[in-house]
Amino acid sequence: LKGEAPIRARAAGKLASEIAAFDAAYGMPTARRFLSLDEIAVPAAERATLTQLGEWVAQIVRDGAC
Questions:
Q1: DSSP 3-state assignment of 43?
Q2: pLDDT reported for residue 52
Q3: Would you give the DSSP letter of residue 34?
């Protein structure tokens, strides 16, 4: 994980690449949200605050969609 960007950003980028590889291999679209301290792009995902993540998960549970 050597490079110019901070290690946290590089690690998040590597995880995003893994997610993209899983999506390509399995073709399983899924709802995805994430919390990040850094500006990163995650395939088919929406960046959210901790509060937004909690509200999103709570709604999924209330809807019985999990």
A1: coil
A2: 98
A3: E
Alpha helices in 3-49 (DSSP H): 7-26
Q: C-alpha 60: how far from its chain's center?
A: 17
User: For position 2, what pLDDT does the model report?
Assistant: 66
Q: Are 23 and 44 in contact, with CB atoms under 8 Å apart?
A: yes
Continuous segment of H or E residues that includes residue 27: none
The closest alpha carbon to 34, from 21, 22, 49, 17, belongs to 49
Amino acid letter for position 25: A
Residue 5 DSSP class: S
* DSSP β-bridge partners for residue 47: 34
Structure tokens at 63: 């809807």
